[in-house]
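Quick one: structure for this chain?
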Amino acid sequence: MLRSFSISPLLSMRSLLVLLPLLTLTACRSAEPPSELGVPTEAEVQLLPLTGPCAERDAELSGLGWIGDELVLLPQYPGRLSVTSDTLDAEGVGRPSGALCVLAKGDLLAFVEGRYRGALQPRLVPLEAGGVAGIAEGYEGYEAIAFRGNRVYLAIESAKSEAMQGYLVEGTVTHSQEGRLAEIRLDTQSLVPLPVQARIQNLSYETLLATPRGIVALQEANGIAVNPMPEAYLFDPSLVLRDSLDVPTLEYRLTDATTLDAEGRFWGLNYFYPGDQGTLRPGPDSLELIYGTGWTHQREAVVERLVEFRLNGDRIVRTDLPPILLRLLGENRARNWEGLARLDTLGFILATDKYPTTILAFVALPR
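Got it. Here's what it folds into:
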Protein backbone atom coordinates (compact mmCIF):
# COMPACT_ATOMS: atom_id res chain seq x y z
CA MET A 1 0.00 0.00 0.00
CA LEU A 2 1.26 3.46 -0.88
CA ARG A 3 1.56 6.01 1.88
CA SER A 4 -0.02 9.39 1.24
CA PHE A 5 2.28 12.37 0.80
CA SER A 6 1.96 15.95 -0.44
CA ILE A 7 3.52 17.03 -3.74
CA SER A 8 4.91 20.48 -4.41
CA PRO A 9 3.43 22.02 -7.56
CA LEU A 10 7.01 22.59 -8.74
CA LEU A 11 7.89 18.91 -8.49
CA SER A 12 8.44 17.49 -11.97
CA MET A 13 6.80 14.32 -13.21
CA ARG A 14 10.27 12.82 -13.46
CA SER A 15 10.89 13.52 -9.76
CA LEU A 16 7.53 12.01 -8.87
CA LEU A 17 8.37 8.83 -10.77
CA VAL A 18 11.60 8.51 -8.81
CA LEU A 19 9.60 8.46 -5.58
CA LEU A 20 7.12 5.80 -6.69
CA PRO A 21 7.94 2.15 -6.01
CA LEU A 22 9.52 0.28 -8.87
CA LEU A 23 6.68 -2.27 -8.84
CA THR A 24 4.21 0.45 -9.69
CA LEU A 25 6.36 1.54 -12.61
CA THR A 26 6.67 -2.03 -13.81
CA ALA A 27 2.94 -2.58 -13.69
CA CYS A 28 2.40 0.44 -15.93
CA ARG A 29 4.59 -0.87 -18.73
CA SER A 30 3.24 -2.27 -21.95
CA ALA A 31 5.24 -4.65 -24.12
CA GLU A 32 4.67 -2.52 -27.23
CA PRO A 33 3.92 1.22 -27.14
CA PRO A 34 0.65 2.14 -28.83
CA SER A 35 0.51 4.72 -31.58
CA GLU A 36 -0.74 7.94 -29.99
CA LEU A 37 -1.00 11.45 -31.36
CA GLY A 38 1.24 13.89 -29.53
CA VAL A 39 3.58 11.23 -28.12
CA PRO A 40 7.12 11.71 -29.45
CA THR A 41 8.62 8.74 -31.23
CA GLU A 42 11.44 7.00 -29.40
CA ALA A 43 14.50 5.84 -31.31
CA GLU A 44 15.39 2.18 -31.47
CA VAL A 45 18.81 1.23 -30.11
CA GLN A 46 20.60 -1.19 -32.46
CA LEU A 47 23.27 -3.18 -30.65
CA LEU A 48 26.69 -3.48 -32.29
CA PRO A 49 28.19 -6.69 -30.90
CA LEU A 50 31.80 -6.44 -29.73
CA THR A 51 34.41 -9.05 -29.02
CA GLY A 52 37.91 -8.97 -27.55
CA PRO A 53 39.31 -7.04 -24.55
CA CYS A 54 37.37 -3.86 -25.38
CA ALA A 55 34.09 -5.76 -25.01
CA GLU A 56 34.81 -6.68 -21.39
CA ARG A 57 32.82 -4.94 -18.68
CA ASP A 58 36.03 -3.68 -17.03
CA ALA A 59 36.92 -1.72 -20.15
CA GLU A 60 34.55 0.99 -18.79
CA LEU A 61 34.25 2.96 -22.02
CA SER A 62 33.93 6.65 -21.14
CA GLY A 63 34.13 8.53 -24.44
CA LEU A 64 34.23 8.32 -28.24
CA GLY A 65 36.20 10.37 -30.74
CA TRP A 66 36.90 10.33 -34.47
CA ILE A 67 40.36 10.73 -35.95
CA GLY A 68 40.08 10.45 -39.70
CA ASP A 69 38.07 7.34 -40.52
CA GLU A 70 38.80 5.62 -37.22
CA LEU A 71 36.63 5.75 -34.12
CA VAL A 72 38.52 5.72 -30.82
CA LEU A 73 36.76 4.11 -27.87
CA LEU A 74 38.26 5.58 -24.69
CA PRO A 75 38.52 3.28 -21.65
CA GLN A 76 38.33 5.08 -18.32
CA TYR A 77 41.43 3.16 -17.22
CA PRO A 78 43.53 2.40 -20.32
CA GLY A 79 46.14 0.63 -18.18
CA ARG A 80 43.76 -2.31 -17.89
CA LEU A 81 44.29 -2.95 -21.60
CA SER A 82 47.97 -3.76 -21.86
CA VAL A 83 49.71 -3.63 -25.25
CA THR A 84 53.27 -3.13 -26.48
CA SER A 85 53.95 -0.11 -28.66
CA ASP A 86 55.52 -0.49 -32.10
CA THR A 87 57.52 2.63 -31.27
CA LEU A 88 60.83 1.63 -29.68
CA ASP A 89 62.59 3.30 -26.78
CA ALA A 90 66.27 4.32 -26.74
CA GLU A 91 67.33 0.72 -26.19
CA GLY A 92 65.23 -0.61 -29.05
CA VAL A 93 62.56 -2.13 -26.81
CA GLY A 94 58.82 -1.66 -27.28
CA ARG A 95 57.29 0.30 -24.42
CA PRO A 96 54.57 -1.49 -22.42
CA SER A 97 51.60 0.82 -22.23
CA GLY A 98 47.90 1.17 -21.67
CA ALA A 99 45.70 1.09 -24.71
CA LEU A 100 42.74 2.63 -26.49
CA CYS A 101 40.23 0.73 -28.63
CA VAL A 102 39.82 1.57 -32.31
CA LEU A 103 37.21 0.64 -34.93
CA ALA A 104 37.26 1.45 -38.65
CA LYS A 105 34.39 3.55 -39.97
CA GLY A 106 34.02 1.15 -42.89
CA ASP A 107 33.26 -1.73 -40.53
CA LEU A 108 30.70 0.33 -38.60
CA LEU A 109 28.97 1.43 -41.79
CA ALA A 110 28.95 -2.12 -43.13
CA PHE A 111 27.35 -3.43 -39.94
CA VAL A 112 24.70 -0.70 -39.77
CA GLU A 113 23.84 -1.22 -43.46
CA GLY A 114 23.60 -4.99 -43.04
CA ARG A 115 26.75 -5.85 -44.99
CA TYR A 116 28.74 -7.14 -41.99
CA ARG A 117 28.14 -10.33 -40.06
CA GLY A 118 29.57 -11.32 -36.70
CA ALA A 119 31.02 -9.24 -33.90
CA LEU A 120 33.21 -6.16 -34.26
CA GLN A 121 36.67 -6.53 -32.71
CA PRO A 122 38.35 -3.20 -31.91
CA ARG A 123 42.09 -3.22 -32.27
CA LEU A 124 44.26 -1.97 -29.42
CA VAL A 125 46.36 1.16 -29.93
CA PRO A 126 49.06 2.01 -27.34
CA LEU A 127 48.59 4.99 -25.04
CA GLU A 128 51.85 6.22 -23.55
CA ALA A 129 50.56 8.29 -20.62
CA GLY A 130 53.92 9.28 -19.17
CA GLY A 131 52.83 8.79 -15.57
CA VAL A 132 49.83 11.13 -15.73
CA ALA A 133 47.97 8.94 -13.22
CA GLY A 134 50.60 9.75 -10.61
CA ILE A 135 50.73 13.46 -11.41
CA ALA A 136 46.98 14.18 -11.38
CA GLU A 137 46.33 14.01 -7.65
CA GLY A 138 43.42 11.69 -6.85
CA TYR A 139 43.38 10.35 -10.42
CA GLU A 140 40.14 8.52 -11.28
CA GLY A 141 40.58 7.87 -14.97
CA TYR A 142 39.83 9.51 -18.32
CA GLU A 143 36.33 10.78 -19.10
CA ALA A 144 36.45 12.43 -22.54
CA ILE A 145 38.55 12.56 -25.69
CA ALA A 146 38.77 14.94 -28.65
CA PHE A 147 41.11 15.24 -31.64
CA ARG A 148 42.31 18.38 -33.40
CA GLY A 149 44.60 17.62 -36.30
CA ASN A 150 47.35 15.37 -34.96
CA ARG A 151 46.79 16.48 -31.38
CA VAL A 152 44.66 14.63 -28.86
CA TYR A 153 43.00 16.06 -25.76
CA LEU A 154 41.78 14.09 -22.77
CA ALA A 155 39.72 15.06 -19.74
CA ILE A 156 40.74 13.42 -16.45
CA GLU A 157 38.59 13.01 -13.36
CA SER A 158 40.37 13.41 -10.04
CA ALA A 159 38.87 13.24 -6.54
CA LYS A 160 41.48 15.38 -4.82
CA SER A 161 38.92 16.97 -2.51
CA GLU A 162 35.21 16.85 -1.70
CA ALA A 163 34.60 18.46 -5.09
CA MET A 164 35.70 16.51 -8.13
CA GLN A 165 38.67 18.17 -9.77
CA GLY A 166 38.93 17.93 -13.53
CA TYR A 167 42.13 18.11 -15.57
CA LEU A 168 42.98 18.51 -19.23
CA VAL A 169 46.00 16.97 -20.89
CA GLU A 170 47.16 16.99 -24.51
CA GLY A 171 49.23 14.60 -26.53
CA THR A 172 50.51 13.71 -29.97
CA VAL A 173 49.14 11.20 -32.45
CA THR A 174 51.36 8.88 -34.50
CA HIS A 175 50.14 7.12 -37.64
CA SER A 176 51.47 4.04 -39.38
CA GLN A 177 52.70 4.08 -42.98
CA GLU A 178 49.25 2.80 -43.95
CA GLY A 179 47.67 5.87 -42.31
CA ARG A 180 46.17 4.00 -39.36
CA LEU A 181 46.39 5.32 -35.81
CA ALA A 182 49.53 3.75 -34.33
CA GLU A 183 50.13 5.40 -30.95
CA ILE A 184 49.08 8.25 -28.68
CA ARG A 185 51.64 9.81 -26.36
CA LEU A 186 50.58 12.30 -23.69
CA ASP A 187 52.60 15.35 -22.65
CA THR A 188 52.59 15.44 -18.85
CA GLN A 189 53.85 19.05 -18.89
CA SER A 190 50.57 20.11 -20.52
CA LEU A 191 48.37 18.97 -17.60
CA VAL A 192 46.10 21.82 -16.44
CA PRO A 193 43.27 21.92 -13.87
CA LEU A 194 39.67 22.66 -14.82
CA PRO A 195 37.65 25.09 -12.69
CA VAL A 196 35.40 23.41 -10.13
CA GLN A 197 31.70 24.11 -10.72
CA ALA A 198 29.13 21.70 -9.32
CA ARG A 199 30.65 20.36 -6.11
CA ILE A 200 29.38 16.83 -6.48
CA GLN A 201 31.38 13.71 -5.77
CA ASN A 202 32.17 11.65 -8.88
CA LEU A 203 30.97 14.34 -11.31
CA SER A 204 33.30 16.69 -13.16
CA TYR A 205 33.96 17.21 -16.89
CA GLU A 206 32.88 14.51 -19.33
CA THR A 207 32.60 16.42 -22.62
CA LEU A 208 35.28 17.97 -24.83
CA LEU A 209 34.69 19.85 -28.09
CA ALA A 210 37.40 20.55 -30.64
CA THR A 211 36.61 23.96 -32.16
CA PRO A 212 38.44 26.34 -34.54
CA ARG A 213 39.44 28.43 -31.51
CA GLY A 214 40.61 25.54 -29.35
CA ILE A 215 39.20 22.98 -26.92
CA VAL A 216 35.96 23.51 -24.99
CA ALA A 217 35.36 21.56 -21.78
CA LEU A 218 31.79 21.12 -20.49
CA GLN A 219 30.77 20.19 -16.96
CA GLU A 220 28.74 17.02 -16.41
CA ALA A 221 26.19 18.49 -13.94
CA ASN A 222 24.34 21.57 -15.24
CA GLY A 223 21.00 21.33 -13.44
CA ILE A 224 19.39 24.34 -11.81
CA ALA A 225 19.78 23.04 -8.25
CA VAL A 226 23.44 22.01 -8.44
CA ASN A 227 24.95 24.39 -11.03
CA PRO A 228 22.55 27.31 -11.60
CA MET A 229 25.02 29.32 -13.75
CA PRO A 230 26.92 26.67 -15.73
CA GLU A 231 29.91 27.61 -17.85
CA ALA A 232 32.11 25.88 -20.38
CA TYR A 233 35.80 26.73 -20.64
CA LEU A 234 37.74 27.45 -23.81
CA PHE A 235 41.43 26.53 -23.92
CA ASP A 236 43.73 27.34 -26.79
CA PRO A 237 45.50 24.39 -28.51
CA SER A 238 48.35 24.65 -25.96
CA LEU A 239 45.79 24.40 -23.10
CA VAL A 240 46.01 28.01 -21.97
CA LEU A 241 42.63 29.07 -20.57
CA ARG A 242 41.24 31.78 -22.84
CA ASP A 243 37.55 32.27 -22.12
CA SER A 244 34.42 31.03 -20.39
CA LEU A 245 31.21 30.36 -22.31
CA ASP A 246 27.65 30.58 -21.03
CA VAL A 247 25.84 27.25 -21.10
CA PRO A 248 22.07 26.63 -20.78
CA THR A 249 20.95 24.73 -17.71
CA LEU A 250 20.25 21.08 -18.43
CA GLU A 251 18.85 18.65 -15.92
CA TYR A 252 20.45 15.25 -15.30
CA ARG A 253 23.96 14.51 -16.66
CA LEU A 254 25.80 15.58 -19.81
CA THR A 255 28.17 12.71 -20.52
CA ASP A 256 29.60 13.25 -24.03
CA ALA A 257 29.04 15.08 -27.31
CA THR A 258 29.59 14.71 -31.03
CA THR A 259 31.97 16.84 -33.05
CA LEU A 260 30.74 20.19 -34.39
CA ASP A 261 29.15 20.38 -37.82
CA ALA A 262 29.82 23.21 -40.30
CA GLU A 263 27.31 25.44 -38.48
CA GLY A 264 28.70 24.80 -35.01
CA ARG A 265 25.95 22.37 -33.99
CA PHE A 266 26.56 19.28 -31.92
CA TRP A 267 24.54 16.65 -30.07
CA GLY A 268 25.03 15.89 -26.38
CA LEU A 269 24.25 12.76 -24.35
CA ASN A 270 21.74 13.55 -21.62
CA TYR A 271 21.30 10.71 -19.14
CA PHE A 272 19.67 10.12 -15.75
CA TYR A 273 19.93 7.13 -13.47
CA PRO A 274 17.23 7.24 -10.73
CA GLY A 275 19.81 6.40 -8.06
CA ASP A 276 21.28 9.89 -8.65
CA GLN A 277 18.09 11.64 -7.56
CA GLY A 278 19.51 12.75 -4.22
CA THR A 279 22.79 13.86 -5.75
CA LEU A 280 21.58 15.74 -8.83
CA ARG A 281 18.28 16.98 -7.31
CA PRO A 282 16.74 17.50 -10.77
CA GLY A 283 14.25 20.31 -11.16
CA PRO A 284 11.41 20.55 -13.68
CA ASP A 285 12.55 19.19 -17.03
CA SER A 286 12.12 22.10 -19.44
CA LEU A 287 12.69 19.91 -22.50
CA GLU A 288 9.97 17.50 -21.44
CA LEU A 289 7.60 20.40 -20.78
CA ILE A 290 8.24 21.84 -24.27
CA TYR A 291 8.40 18.70 -26.41
CA GLY A 292 6.62 16.05 -24.37
CA THR A 293 8.06 12.64 -23.75
CA GLY A 294 7.94 9.20 -25.29
CA TRP A 295 5.98 6.11 -24.31
CA THR A 296 8.68 4.33 -22.29
CA HIS A 297 9.90 7.59 -20.74
CA GLN A 298 6.40 8.27 -19.42
CA ARG A 299 6.63 5.09 -17.38
CA GLU A 300 10.24 5.23 -16.22
CA ALA A 301 12.33 7.47 -14.02
CA VAL A 302 15.28 6.82 -16.34
CA VAL A 303 16.19 9.42 -18.98
CA GLU A 304 18.21 8.50 -22.08
CA ARG A 305 18.22 11.10 -24.83
CA LEU A 306 20.28 13.20 -27.22
CA VAL A 307 19.99 17.00 -27.13
CA GLU A 308 21.25 19.30 -29.88
CA PHE A 309 23.27 22.44 -29.09
CA ARG A 310 25.09 25.10 -31.08
CA LEU A 311 28.30 26.95 -30.35
CA ASN A 312 27.33 30.58 -30.87
CA GLY A 313 30.21 32.97 -30.29
CA ASP A 314 30.86 33.22 -26.56
CA ARG A 315 27.99 30.96 -25.52
CA ILE A 316 26.44 27.57 -26.12
CA VAL A 317 22.71 27.47 -26.85
CA ARG A 318 20.15 24.74 -27.42
CA THR A 319 18.69 24.51 -30.89
CA ASP A 320 14.97 24.19 -31.64
CA LEU A 321 15.23 20.52 -32.61
CA PRO A 322 13.37 18.18 -30.25
CA PRO A 323 15.53 15.77 -28.23
CA ILE A 324 16.03 12.28 -29.61
CA LEU A 325 14.57 9.93 -27.01
CA LEU A 326 15.93 6.39 -26.81
CA ARG A 327 13.59 3.44 -26.31
CA LEU A 328 14.21 2.39 -22.70
CA LEU A 329 14.83 -1.14 -21.45
CA GLY A 330 12.00 -0.99 -18.91
CA GLU A 331 11.71 -1.78 -15.21
CA ASN A 332 13.92 1.24 -14.42
CA ARG A 333 16.98 -0.46 -15.91
CA ALA A 334 19.38 2.22 -17.11
CA ARG A 335 22.18 2.15 -19.65
CA ASN A 336 24.97 4.42 -18.48
CA TRP A 337 25.72 6.05 -21.83
CA GLU A 338 29.09 7.82 -21.73
CA GLY A 339 30.24 7.90 -25.35
CA LEU A 340 28.68 9.60 -28.39
CA ALA A 341 29.85 10.14 -31.98
CA ARG A 342 28.21 10.87 -35.33
CA LEU A 343 28.19 8.20 -38.01
CA ASP A 344 28.16 10.34 -41.17
CA THR A 345 24.56 11.43 -41.87
CA LEU A 346 23.07 8.10 -40.77
CA GLY A 347 22.93 8.65 -37.03
CA PHE A 348 25.03 8.08 -33.94
CA ILE A 349 27.33 5.58 -32.27
CA LEU A 350 26.83 5.31 -28.50
CA ALA A 351 28.81 3.48 -25.82
CA THR A 352 28.20 2.64 -22.16
CA ASP A 353 30.62 2.11 -19.36
CA LYS A 354 30.21 -1.08 -17.31
CA TYR A 355 26.53 -0.50 -16.41
CA PRO A 356 24.72 -2.72 -17.21
CA THR A 357 27.64 -4.01 -19.30
CA THR A 358 29.80 -2.74 -22.15
CA ILE A 359 27.41 -1.75 -24.94
CA LEU A 360 28.17 -0.26 -28.34
CA ALA A 361 25.08 0.78 -30.26
CA PHE A 362 23.76 2.66 -33.27
CA VAL A 363 20.82 5.09 -33.20
CA ALA A 364 19.49 6.33 -36.52
CA LEU A 365 18.92 10.03 -37.09
CA PRO A 366 15.17 10.72 -37.30
CA ARG A 367 13.93 11.17 -40.85
